[in-house]
Amino acid sequence: MNDLPEQRRTGLMISIPVDLSSSDNMVELEENGVKARRVQVERIEELGGGLLEWRLVTCEDPGGMIPRPCATRMTRERIAKDVAFFLLWFGSQPRENPTNEATRRGESSGGSENT
Protein backbone atom coordinates (compact mmCIF):
# COMPACT_ATOMS: atom_id res chain seq x y z
CA MET A 1 0.00 0.00 0.00
CA ASN A 2 1.32 3.44 -0.92
CA ASP A 3 0.59 6.06 1.78
CA LEU A 4 2.47 8.82 -0.04
CA PRO A 5 0.40 11.82 -1.13
CA GLU A 6 0.04 12.30 -4.86
CA GLN A 7 3.08 14.15 -6.18
CA ARG A 8 2.11 17.12 -8.32
CA ARG A 9 4.52 18.33 -10.93
CA THR A 10 5.48 21.97 -10.59
CA GLY A 11 8.10 24.19 -12.14
CA LEU A 12 9.45 27.72 -12.25
CA MET A 13 11.25 29.28 -15.19
CA ILE A 14 12.88 32.70 -15.14
CA SER A 15 14.24 34.35 -18.30
CA ILE A 16 16.40 37.46 -18.11
CA PRO A 17 18.39 39.40 -20.70
CA VAL A 18 22.14 38.94 -20.70
CA ASP A 19 24.64 41.51 -21.96
CA LEU A 20 27.42 39.71 -23.85
CA SER A 21 29.35 42.86 -24.78
CA SER A 22 31.97 42.43 -22.03
CA SER A 23 33.29 39.18 -23.55
CA ASP A 24 35.05 39.46 -26.93
CA ASN A 25 34.51 35.73 -27.59
CA MET A 26 30.78 35.97 -26.97
CA VAL A 27 30.35 39.18 -28.99
CA GLU A 28 31.77 37.38 -32.04
CA LEU A 29 29.09 34.66 -31.69
CA GLU A 30 26.22 37.08 -31.21
CA GLU A 31 24.03 37.77 -34.23
CA ASN A 32 23.82 41.26 -35.70
CA GLY A 33 20.63 43.27 -35.60
CA VAL A 34 18.36 44.96 -33.10
CA LYS A 35 18.38 43.24 -29.73
CA ALA A 36 15.09 42.80 -27.93
CA ARG A 37 14.93 42.79 -24.16
CA ARG A 38 12.62 40.53 -22.19
CA VAL A 39 12.15 39.48 -18.59
CA GLN A 40 9.75 36.60 -18.04
CA VAL A 41 8.69 34.50 -15.06
CA GLU A 42 6.56 31.38 -15.46
CA ARG A 43 5.13 29.11 -12.80
CA ILE A 44 3.54 25.83 -13.81
CA GLU A 45 1.64 23.58 -11.43
CA GLU A 46 -0.31 20.41 -11.97
CA LEU A 47 -3.53 20.80 -9.97
CA GLY A 48 -4.86 17.27 -10.28
CA GLY A 49 -7.88 15.99 -12.12
CA GLY A 50 -6.17 16.76 -15.42
CA LEU A 51 -5.98 20.49 -14.66
CA LEU A 52 -2.89 22.59 -15.10
CA GLU A 53 -2.19 26.15 -13.96
CA TRP A 54 0.32 28.20 -15.90
CA ARG A 55 1.06 31.72 -14.65
CA LEU A 56 3.14 34.01 -16.81
CA VAL A 57 4.44 37.52 -16.20
CA THR A 58 6.42 39.13 -18.98
CA CYS A 59 7.85 42.54 -19.75
CA GLU A 60 9.54 43.05 -23.07
CA ASP A 61 10.77 45.65 -25.48
CA PRO A 62 11.36 44.44 -29.03
CA GLY A 63 13.75 47.31 -29.71
CA GLY A 64 14.13 48.93 -33.09
CA MET A 65 11.35 50.79 -34.86
CA ILE A 66 8.39 48.50 -34.09
CA PRO A 67 5.48 50.61 -32.77
CA ARG A 68 4.48 49.75 -29.18
CA PRO A 69 0.83 48.73 -30.03
CA CYS A 70 2.09 46.35 -32.71
CA ALA A 71 4.67 44.85 -30.34
CA THR A 72 2.03 44.37 -27.63
CA ARG A 73 -0.33 42.57 -30.04
CA MET A 74 2.50 40.34 -31.32
CA THR A 75 3.47 39.45 -27.74
CA ARG A 76 -0.08 38.34 -26.90
CA GLU A 77 -0.27 36.25 -30.08
CA ARG A 78 3.10 34.61 -29.35
CA ILE A 79 2.07 33.76 -25.79
CA ALA A 80 -1.22 32.25 -26.99
CA LYS A 81 0.68 29.96 -29.39
CA ASP A 82 3.22 29.06 -26.69
CA VAL A 83 0.43 27.93 -24.35
CA ALA A 84 -0.88 25.40 -26.87
CA PHE A 85 2.61 24.03 -27.59
CA PHE A 86 3.47 23.80 -23.91
CA LEU A 87 0.26 21.98 -22.99
CA LEU A 88 0.87 19.40 -25.73
CA TRP A 89 4.44 18.86 -24.55
CA PHE A 90 3.57 18.72 -20.84
CA GLY A 91 0.78 16.21 -21.43
CA SER A 92 3.18 13.94 -23.31
CA GLN A 93 5.68 13.74 -20.42
CA PRO A 94 5.62 10.54 -18.35
CA ARG A 95 4.74 10.85 -14.68
CA GLU A 96 7.48 9.84 -12.28
CA ASN A 97 6.69 7.27 -9.63
CA PRO A 98 7.49 9.06 -6.31
CA THR A 99 9.01 5.86 -4.89
CA ASN A 100 11.33 5.49 -7.88
CA GLU A 101 12.31 9.18 -7.70
CA ALA A 102 13.20 8.90 -3.98
CA THR A 103 15.22 5.75 -4.66
CA ARG A 104 17.09 7.49 -7.47
CA ARG A 105 18.02 10.32 -5.08
CA GLY A 106 19.25 7.76 -2.53
CA GLU A 107 16.51 8.42 0.01
CA SER A 108 15.25 5.67 2.28
CA SER A 109 11.67 4.51 1.95
CA GLY A 110 11.30 4.69 5.73
CA GLY A 111 11.48 0.94 6.34
CA SER A 112 14.14 -0.83 8.37
CA GLU A 113 17.00 -2.51 6.56
CA ASN A 114 18.58 -5.79 7.59
CA THR A 115 22.23 -6.16 6.63
From TrEMBL:
<feature type="region of interest" description="Disordered">
    <location>
        <begin position="93"/>
        <end position="115"/>
    </location>
</feature>
<dbReference type="InterPro" id="IPR024500">
    <property type="entry name" value="DUF3074"/>
</dbReference>
<dbReference type="Pfam" id="PF11274">
    <property type="entry name" value="DUF3074"/>
</dbReference>
<protein>
    <recommendedName>
        <fullName>DUF3074 domain-containing protein</fullName>
    </recommendedName>
</protein>
<feature type="domain" description="DUF3074">
    <location>
        <begin position="10"/>
        <end position="89"/>
    </location>
</feature>
